[in-house]
């Protein structure tokens, strides 16, 4: 498990309100490059976006995430093999961490930061999506942790032993709704905190948003920035409902 904390204060406003943005055509040109370019070459291209004022969060969501999705599509159509995709995702992960290092936050930390555990659903082998979402939450001042390729027993053990405001599951591959319902129910049944909320996301959920209601999740978001906004709202509502009324 990877733990991450940040000295930043949570603020989801203005994350994309920078002097520049990433155009879809630019993201499309970048998308296949992790298959052929090393991490240093990729970072050089990312640096051009940073230099013109694109935020790290926008780099993650509007450039690296589409690239990861493109690699997955190429694998699904047998245009590249599993090793190619694995190496490409590793390079994207290196670029993500270097981008975060070059652009540290400057806002003071929270007195009592909310907490989140992010994890791919047990059985999935790639963790890039969870790592990217975790980076966005950490930069917003959350106490965040991520599990890499967890087994079901490991995930439940972590949830039972630690208090989290939110558990975020990413589902990229096909998954039966009954299996997703089962893991969400299990998380709630063993959670150390009775108020823990479960949110879901990833390619599978984006394609089938009805899974949220079918599986009893507390919400979903289409990308990391939207997930942060959702989680902030959920935590605020949970704390407000738990506060004694006058």
UniProtKB/TrEMBL annotation:
SUPFAM superfamilies linked: Cobalamin (vitamin B12)-binding domain
A Pfam family of this chain: B12-binding
A molecular function (GO) term: metal ion binding
Chain spans, region Disordered: 1-23
Residue span(s) of domain B12-binding: 113-241
Record field: compositional bias (Basic and acidic residues): 1-16
Highest taxon listed in the record's lineage: Bacteria
Classification via InterPro entries: Cobalamin-bd, Cobalamin-bd_sf
Protein name listed in UniProt: Cobalamin B12-binding domain-containing protein
Organism: Altererythrobacter lutimaris
């Amino acid at each position: 498990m990877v733990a991450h904390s940040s000295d930043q204060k949570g603020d989801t406003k203005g994350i994309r309100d920078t002097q520049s943005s990433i155009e879809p055509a630019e993201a499309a040109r970048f998308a296949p490059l992790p298959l052929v370019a090393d991490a240093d070459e990729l970072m050089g291209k990312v640096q051009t976006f940073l230099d013109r004022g694109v935020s790290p969060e926008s780099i993650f969501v509007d450039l690296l995430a589409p690239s990861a999705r493109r690699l997955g599509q190429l694998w699904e159509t047998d245009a590249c093999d599993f090793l190619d995709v694995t190496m490409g995702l590793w390079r994207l992960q290196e670029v993500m961490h270097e981008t975060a290092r070059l652009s540290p936050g400057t806002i003071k930390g929270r007195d009592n930061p909310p907490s989140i555990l992010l994890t791919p659903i047990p059985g999935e082998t790639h963790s890039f999506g969870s790592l990217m979402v975790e980076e966005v939450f950490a930069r917003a001042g959350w106490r965040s942790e991520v599990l890499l390729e967890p087994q079901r027993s490991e995930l439940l053990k972590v949830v039972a032993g630690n208090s989290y405001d939110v558990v975020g599951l990413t589902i990229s591959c096909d998954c039966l709704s009954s299996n997703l319902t089962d893991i969400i129910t299990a998380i709630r049944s063993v959670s150390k905190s009775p108020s823990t909320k479960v949110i879901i996301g990833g390619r599978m959920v984006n394609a089938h948003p009805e899974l949220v209601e079918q599986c009893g999740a507390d919400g979903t978001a289409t990308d990391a920035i939207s997930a942060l906004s959702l989680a902030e709202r959920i935590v605020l509502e949970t704390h407000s409902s738990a506060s004694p009324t006058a």
